[in-house]
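Q: what does this look like with copper (II) ion bound?
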Amino acid sequence: MSKFLPLWPDRASTVAGQVDALYIYLVLVSAVMTLLIFIAVAVLAIKYRRRPGVLPHPIEGSPFLEITWSVIPFGVMLTFFIWGAVIFFKERTPPTNSTEVYVVAKQWMWKIEHMEGQREINELHVPTGQNVKLIMTSQDVIHSFFIPAFRLKQDVVPGRYNTLWFKATSPGIYHLFCAEYCGTSHSGMIGNVVVMEPQDYAQWMAGGPSVPLPEAGKQLFASLGCATCHRFDLQGRGPNLQGAFGKPVLLEDGRTVMADDNYVRESILNPTAKIVAGFKPVMPTFQGLVTDEQLNALVAYVKSLAQQPAGGAQNQADASTAGQPQTKQVQ
Ligand SMILES: [Cu+2]
């Protein structure tokens, strides 16, 4: 049908069919409601038309009718909300087994960094049947990552990470748009999402030399001197980062926050915003000293440390080796 009446773009993600179904439902309910209103207008106009010699009697109103035509449409409208909310929460909650990909938007291109180290511009290669989580930020203004075939769109905002996840279903090349007006060449900020069969994807991923993102972060961690304070024993001036990611952190002011991507990012750029309980606000800011790509690498590295238990290197005496964790085998 779509050949003759191209009403729907390709569907290439698990959520696409659900969004379409909701949309069809919205159109149908609107059509039925419109029809009912027009029928009522016509019927009532005929029934209560002026007739010579006939005096109409006043209508006092009917609580039963009024409640009925309020409650039923209210219930119908609520189904939009409930159905929409169910899809929204599904779209908003990345499964824990997602492959993570970093996206940096800038005027006017999309920069993609895979954990494995592959980098792309205006192209995103993904396998079918795999949950993929995009961790996105912008270098300049607000952009919006939009893949019509996936029925997904997410604002990409400077100064923080926003995420988006999907599971692609059919191989092919799909449009990637920027859906937020972002300056002169906004319309040129387009690209392709290349969905591949897993074996083709593995082959693509294996091509080209590349340093995995956490590895790049580890080198930065050492060269920026982070390792001097963030030691893998309990004697550092900064918190031990082993096993820290993804866990709640108790702060000096009594609050507890989750150590997620945005927390690590903020802690690097604005270290005094959230001081970990038991530590002093001695860390300098790295605002302006690291690029968004370097930040991604650092966050990816801290994340990779989560696989290692806290205090896993208790007897590691020399802080200068802290950049090279010796508990690599723990997995
Ligand atoms: Cu843009």
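Residues 108, 143, 178, 180, 182, 186, 189 surround copper (II) ion (CB under 6 Å). Residues 243 and 306 are 4 Å apart (CA to CA).
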